[in-house]
Amino acid sequence: MARFFADSGFDLFAHVDAKVDEAPFRAQAPWVQFISPRLEVFWRGFSMVEATVALIEAARARRPYARYMLLSDDTVPLQSLSLIRNALLGDEEFAAFGPVEAHRGRYEGYFLFDSPATQLRWIPGVQRVVTPGLIARVKRAEALMARGKAPLPVFWYGSQWMALTAPSIERILARWHSDEWLRESFAFADAPDESYFQTILGEQLGRIDRGLVYVDWSTPEPPRVFTEISALEAVEPGGFMFLRKARLAPEALRQWVDRLRG
Q1: Residue 146: which residues within 8 A CB-CB, separation 6 or more?
Q2: What would the mean pLDDT of 78-104 be, rounded to a whole number?
Q3: pLDDT higher than threshold 90 for residue 195
C-alpha cells in the first residue's frame, strides 16, 4: 500500500503495533513516516482508537491537510491512483456508518480487551500475565462503573476505514480532548473503533453511506481473504476505492499495484 502511494503527492504515516518489530517495515518503505511512541494494539480494544488518534495527531502536527485517510495493512487498491486522487479532492466524506441499535450492547456493557491477559486473540497461557497497566485499567473501569457511561440517544456504528475532510477530523479531535466521559465510556466498549468516531461524526452529519473499503462478508467464514489477482479482478468495485482483506504473494501484489498506479 505504501508503494502504491509513493511519489504521488500523498504523505504517509504508519503506526506499527508495539508488540512487533518495526524495522522490517521501515526498511521496505523508508519514505513513510513511522510515528512514535507506539502502542500495543489489541483486536476489538480501545487501543485501536488510541493508535488512530495518534496517527491523526502526528499527521496534523506536520501540516494542515485537507484530507485524512485511514487504511489497514491488509488493504489493496481497487481503483487507479488517478481516480482515487481525484475523488479525494472533493469535499465528500468517504465513510459508511449509521444508527445500529442491535449493537448497542457493545457500548452499554463493560469490556476490557487491551492487555495480554484479557485480549481476545489466542496466545499461550503463560503469556497472559497481569501487568500494572492492566491493574490501572481495571481501576478506571471500576470508577466508570460507579458513574455509569455517557448516555447515547443513538448508537452509531460502521466501518473504521474512512477518508475524512479536515473539518470532520477537527470534530473528532475536539471531542477527544474535551469530552473525557465519552472517551472513557468507549474505552471500555467492545470494538470501539467501529463506533467512537462514528458517534462523534454521526451526531453532526447523520448517516453516511459512501464506503471507502470493500469487504466480502458473503463467505461461509467471513470476511473473505483474497489471495489471487484473478479474485481481485472479479470484484465489481462500484464506489469503493480499496479492498480488504488481501494476502497476495509479494510478486502478485507488486503486479497489481503497478497496474493501478499506471
Answers
A1: none
A2: 96
A3: yes
User: How far apart are the C-alpha atoms of 104 and 86, rounded to whole Å?
Assistant: 37
Nearest to 55 by CA among 176, 207, 191, 137: 176
In single-letter form, the type of residue at position 66 comes to A
CA atoms 150, 152, 157, 160: torsion sign: negative
Task: Tell me the average pLDDT across 116-141.
Answer: 97
> Would you say how long the chain is, in residues?
262
Average pLDDT over residues 166-189: 98
What whole-number distance in Å separates Cα of residue 206 and Cα of residue 191? 21
Q: Stretch 154-166: mean pLDDT, rounded?
A: 97
Q: For position 134, what pLDDT does the model report?
A: 97
Determine the average pLDDT of the residues in 87-111: 97
**Do residues 162 and 212 touch, judged by C-beta distance below 8 A?**
yes
Under a CB-based contact definition with an 8 Å cutoff, are residues 156 and 207 in contact? Answer: no
Is the pLDDT reported for residue 1 higher than 90?
no
Within 10 A of 99 (CB to CB), how many other CB atoms are there?
17
Q: Please provide the DSSP assignment of the chain as one string.
A: -HHHHTTTT---EE---TTS-SHHHHHH-TTSEE-SS-----TTSTHHHHHHHHHHHHHHHH---SEEE---TT-EE-S-HHHHHHHHTSS--B-EEEE-GGGTHHHHS-----STTT-SS---GGG----HHHHHHHHHHHHHHHH-PPP-SS-EEE-S--EEEHHHHHHHHHHHHH-HHHHHHHHTSSSGGGTHHHHHHHHHH--EE--SEE----SSSSSP-B-SHHHHHT---TT--EE--B---HHHHHHHHHHHH-
pLDDT for res 262: 82
